[in-house]
Amino acid sequence: MRRDAAHSLRNTVRLALVLAASLLISACNPEQSALHPAGQDAAELSDLFWFMTFGGALVWCIIMGAAIYAVLGKKRPRSEKFADRFIFIGGVAFPTIGLAILLLVGLALLPSWREQDPPDVRIHVAAEQYWWRFSYETEDGARVDTANEIHLPAGSTVEFVLTSTDVIHSFWIPSLGGKLDAIPGRTNLLRLRPTTPGVYRGVCAEFCGPSHTFMAFPVIVSDQAEYEAWLSAQAQPATSTNGAAFLAAGCGACHVVHGVSEAGSVGPDLTHLASRRTIAAGTLPFSREALDDWIVAPTHIKPGARMPSFATLPDADRAAIVDFLMDLR
Ligand code: CUA
Fold first, then answer.
1. Dihedral angle at the C-alpha atoms of 105, 107, 108, 110, nearest 10 degrees?
2. How far is the CA of 142 from the centre of ligand 1 (A)?
């Protein structure tokens, strides 16, 4: 009996070590980790996680200690008074106080922003299969459209107005805070408060189709001046008007490039494509080769992508389109 108990204890310790190691490994990517907070909300969630983890571990240790004592401890009769007290403290007082503390800590972290002032930045987010349409509200009520990359000023309150045009997606920047679904026919509001400048990674956190995993976006948190410079650059028309090949191939039917083609609304706005770090929503790093590969076979890179293949275009035309896109800074 004792050997069995010791054996199972050893197995439990082993399991706990494996779990702890996998937790450490999974927390290794600070760009996309809720345990490396770069925003006030993520910091609160991280604190809650560690509080719950250590609180749970403490309760687990107490229960395991009691179980081991029950199995291995000396067997001698206890008084009825001791038993009553033991049951009251262990079975009533301890769970009641423990759960009340957990509830109070959890309630204190509920968002309270509904009563507060309007946000510093408001961004309209429309989730698409499989990319993100972002539209910044400016102070004069105008909109600045972009896609698949977000820039935010550190120290501000940012409101994301989340909608979806097709299926349910979920908007999540783990380093900045919690996630919220983007649901067709609904508008959901998420507020985040980025605090630490850096480059983070946002993702779609709800399975939405074969390329659910290729639906990410870089999040660049910078100081206010850098953010404002970025936004005013994004509000300008394209830095190149050399789009003859782009227009001849029909790209303008789906993509807006302000100053070149205004009609398309199906695909991402490409006006400042070359200012972005990735193409195809975080799928490939931005480069000439990646653009060329993408134009030839979008669905090889991203299954289910709505963009058709342009493999039949003559090489010279494709090269001219890629040249044009590379100039859209
Ligand atoms: Cu969009 Cu998963």
1. 130
2. 28
